[in-house]
């Protein structure tokens, strides 16, 4: 096949744009990756401290997080997901950039304050939930209550931080997130040393959640925040809720199995948190490009980010497959728990790989403002596919905890493939029009005075913008 000079020049131009975008995303993803690692190590320190106290304390933390993951964190993810769409698109596409983005954050905080009372009532009186778990050890329940009391202090801080981080990320400011997480990790380490590890000042198990606490247009805007936030909350419930449903099932298998589940759940969260932070990067990147009316750039950036995350995740997956026993011994010294962890770590590796890819894909969908589609996929993949499979493997076939994680792997693989198909089929020109309608109330392209990101971004400039 013969190529003309113009064809060769066009291919070189496309390759140049791709490389420029990869460099740009790398500069933004690197600090967010560091932030994700710091946040993961904060969780790892907490989990390790509890794991070396005892299996009942570890099981108590698992029960407490069941309540938090089903009631509190989905609400936080909803606010964060809504702000990722609204702030990133408004920052490059709104006619009154700074006022619009600031008002979105303020109204999100008011929505949280209006709902926090309900969470306090539930977390300070969790017996209504724990009574459903008839076989749970009373000592495990008591440990869960202690953890929830401290979570009541910690949760408002992390919600405010979540909203402020989205405000900064929409402007391409990634480093403050690193500073937030570095401060949290340092505070966690010092607090664990004082309240847990130092024999003269140790509080025992209560010292661990205490250390965690030490670490971390009105009507129309509320309509938009709710419209985009509810699907993000549903997606969060679907993802974390399925793992917590597995935890409920594991309570029927005994304290030892519950301790194994606590390690697996926490390890998954720690390992995939970097993916969720990179997902924030691509969500804001796509939102910025759609706000700047650049469908070509938004499409290109999504492909670049997927390639980067896949390359970043594979070494971790290989490490989990090769060093299973060392990983298990890092979290606990209980030989029975270690023996239960070793055969399930390969399933954890599969879940981590596809959840990392899913984090990027849902980030692209959030950048488009299509949280509802991501939520539908998560509900179908995890509740209509994985839950029936989990029940069958765990109880009729008596495979137990291993069967639960097989079903979790199937669910995340299904979700990631469906989200990839949705992103691949995206009509990016139509997404630009929907963005303009959402931010400016005009279902058409508008003339922008100038993007705040033009000097910083290779794709947001007149030379490459294509509509």
UniProtKB/TrEMBL annotation:
Keywords (A to Z) from UniProt: Membrane, Transmembrane, Transmembrane helix
Transmembrane segments: 109-126, 146-164, 176-197, 300-323, 335-354, 374-394, 401-423
Any Pfam family matching the protein: MatE
Superkingdom, taxonomy of origin: Eukaryota
Protein name: Mate-domain-containing protein
Single Gene Ontology MF annotation: xenobiotic transmembrane transporter activity
GO CC annotation, single: membrane
Family: Belongs to the multi antimicrobial extrusion (MATE) (TC 2.A.66.1) family.
Source organism per UniProt: Linderina pennispora
